[in-house]
Each structure stands twice: as C-alpha cells, then as structure tokens.
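Lab notebook, bench 4. Still working through the backlog of constructs that have no structural model yet. Next entry is a single chain of 550 residues. Request: give me the structure tokens for it.
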Amino acid sequence: MAADFVLSVNLVDIMARTVGPAELRVVNGRVAAIAPVAGAGGPDPALPFALPGFVDAHVHVESSLLVPSEFARLALTHGTVATVSDPHEIGNVLGVAGVQYMLDNAAAGPFKFCFGAPSCVPATPFETAGATITAADIEQLFQNPQIGYLAEMMNWPGVLHRDPDVLEKIALAHRYNRPVDGHAPGLQGDDAARYASAGISTDHECFTAAEARDKLAAGMKILIREGSAARNFDALIELVPQHYEQLMFCSDDKHPDTLLLGHINQLVQRAVALGYSVFDVLQMACLNPIAHYSLPVGQLRVGDPADFILVDNLTDFQVQSTYLNGELVAQNGQCLLPTTAVAVLNNFHAEPIEATALALPAKGKDAGTYPVIECFDGQLITARRDLPVPIAGGLLQPDPAQDILKLVVLNRYTPGAPPAVAFIKGFGLKEGALASSVGHDSHNITAVGCDDASLARAINLVVAAQGGLAAVGPAGAAHVLPLPVAGLMSDQPGPDVAAAYSALDHFAKAQLGSGLQAPFMTLSFMALLVIPSLKLSDKGLFDGEKFEFV
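Model written out:
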C-alpha cells in the first residue's frame, strides 16, 4: 500500500472550472480530503498544478511494439494513467488466447488498462488471419469484468446491411451493459445515422469536421485521433467549443519513438495553445473517457482513487509527477516502476521466398494502365490511380523514378502460400525495401520495395526473426527489429525498442529515401481492407469502397 501523504498544489477542478491553491490529502491510496486555501486570490505560482491523469480513449497497445507493461512505463511519464485498449491486433494472430495474454501482462503493474472484446476477427473474409473470435467467444470475454466494451465494429457494411452475426455481437454488448466502439471512415448523412442507430456509440475514424458533425448529430461521440500515421487533430479540433462534452482524444496507433516523446499531453498542449478553453480540453482528455467507459479511474474527488498528475503550468503541461492509487509511479520523465519478465508466444509459419516468386507477368490489358494504390502521409485512406507501369521481359516492373514501387503481402500462417503482389505510389523509396509482420489487421507480412531482390531479402529477414520489422538497402545494409511476441511486440524494455525503431525509421528515410513521417506505420495499414479505397491482402488487390476484389 502506498504511503499516506499531503501535497500543497494548485488544484484544477475541471467540472467547477476553478484553479486555486489547496491541500490535497491522500490516505490508503485514495483522496481523503481537499482543503482549499482560504483567501487565495488565484493560483500560487510556486505550486504545481494537480489534475486528473490523461486517458487515451482508443489505442492498440500492440502498435507501440511494446507489451502492455512496457507501454505503461512510457505512457506514465507523460501523465497518461489509463487507456481504452482494443487488443484486436493480437486477437487476429492468437484469438482469445491473445486477449488473455494482454490481460495477464497488464496485471503486472498499476496502470489502468480497459481492454475490449475484439468485434471483427478476422476483419474481413477477404484475408487470412491467424484466428477467429466468434460471438460465443465475445460472450465468454464479457463474463470477465476486465473486458470493458465491444471493440471497434469495423464491419460497417455489415452494420448497414444488418448482418445477423454483426448484430448478434452488438446485442451481446448491450446485454452485458458494455458500450460499442465504432469504426466507419467516411460515413455521413443517412448512412452515419443508420450506423449509429445500431447502438454504436463512438467513432475515431473521422477525417473531416463535416463527417464528425454528421456522426455527432446521430448521437455518437467523436474521438480526435493523432497517432504515428493517422493524424486528424488539425481537421477536427474546431469541434471543441460546441461539442467538447461529446469529444475525447486518442492515439489509435503510436510507435515507440513518438510514445517516448509524448502522448495525450501533447494534444492538450496543442489545443490550449490554439486558444481553446483549458477546461473544455481537460474534460476531453481526462474525464469524458472515464464517464463513457465507466473506467475505475480517479477524477481527483474526495473518495476517488488517488490517480492524478502534477504539471508545471496549464500552458506547457510538462508532467512533473504521476500518481496511481496514491503511489508515485513516474517523476520528471522517469518511470519508477520496475521492468517485468515478458512471456513470449507466437503464431508464425511463413517460409523464406525467392525473388522470382514476386514476378508479375504482364497481360494484354496491362499494356495501358494498371491499378496502383496511392498512399498519403498522415492518413489511413488510400486512392486508386490507374497508371502506366513499365514492362521488361514480359514482366511488370517497379519504377522508383516515378515513385511506383512493388507492394507484397505474404500469408504468415500457411507455409508455402504464394505472395500477393501489387503496385503502390507515395512511399518515395529510391532503393531497397521495407518489410513488417505488423500488417493490420491480419498481420501477414507486408513489404514495399524498389526491386524483387530487395523485397525478398527484407521479407526473409522478417521470416528468420519469426516476426519483426526489417529494412534493406544497397551493399548489404540492413536493420532488423525482432518482434517475438505474436510477431507484433518486443520482449525488450520500451526505451531500447524505441531506439531500435528510431534507427530503422532513420534508415528508411535518410538512406532509402522515404519522405513519410512514419514509413513503417503507413506500411502496416496497406493491407487494412476496411479503410478505403484500394488495399492489398494476402489474397489479392481489394476495393474497400465496393468491398470486393479488383
């Protein structure tokens, strides 16, 4: 049990919209008393500011490449005390056993994870996943009080067309009194209203304010997302004055290098710097997720668990200290919790491939144009571009000079499965290749490159590691970050993983030429079929708007 203590602070009462000196008393891990200083005319500049801890309202912990206990050690240094975490990444690899792994690892520390029951495993029938999570599995998960919600319902066509399996999963959530998270990029108007009417309460995929307003009008709550690849803060922050009670902040997917630098605290700082009310912004960052998901997180009220942070001021939000259940768990950028042993489990059966397996024969129709995926920096959506692709020796060829590269998805669950190959524009690689076993949502091996030899080499490095990230360049240059936990997460300490990832990221940009902010994160979404418009699964090129193969 944490020691009892008293702190002199400037107490930030978000709901009362007041800030002033107070004595904060913590006993047995709970807030025992808050005594305002009589006669104070305003905040005391000599005191830190105490406020509830930040909450990430939607994140896939696996995308940090860290197990939950290590994710927590980094997040706590930035004042994050809880997350609403969808474990569908590991669910797609290992099923219910993967969800249980996350629960078990998270239990090693005091960080307040709220895990959901993955609703769409596999995400679509048009790809090969490592497992299936059925409605019966979801009901089993809901019998565990640690499972707090039905995770993002990505099968929005199934919702709109009232697919019985989809509706059964939503009905189970309502029966067990769990909220249902949404995932419906681009839906507006009547479609957004029909989606919400199925009982879906949130959406984190809005990329325009107009789309968000339609969903707000339908009764949904909107999560403003700013992750390593998808960045929607600038497009949505204007919603705050009218809708702050229905808004939250989330990262969705955050790589370890950016998590090392900041988390929800950065979004709070940016919003306040733009002139939005500090109380509106803090309600979004600290309180709205607690209310919506019924999180067991303290709100800095008498009787609550003593989950709070101290910051230097209400402009920079530099976190001095983080407390959980009355225990000081991070101070001045350092986590005070020990590292814990990490168990390893996996589901990886891919075999090495030859470069010749990646050849694409040109057919008669290819003499003109070929459908090319176009990716965009900071977005998960893609476009279809019908472009001329060079032909040599009867084979379609990448054209790095025109930024037309090969994209490959290789089934990692079935030994000897043939690779799917297509073309992509937007990565900007001038030479070499990148490969990753993090490939949303089924997490097959996804690779992008300038030539077949480099692609095969990068893929084979991932195969040899039984999961990981790899980058290869000329003259034998290569970097590999092994991810032995489900091919998604490292078993190493967070700062070490962040350093290794930073080296990979720098190599992809400085040596290979990519201009993307997060090349590996962008690559991981090129097989995500539920995000329009053109993607590649291990079974072929897929139109995410028509929901059919090209």
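Notes after review: The first helix runs from residue 68 to 76. The longest strand covers residues 18-27. Flag for follow-up if needed.
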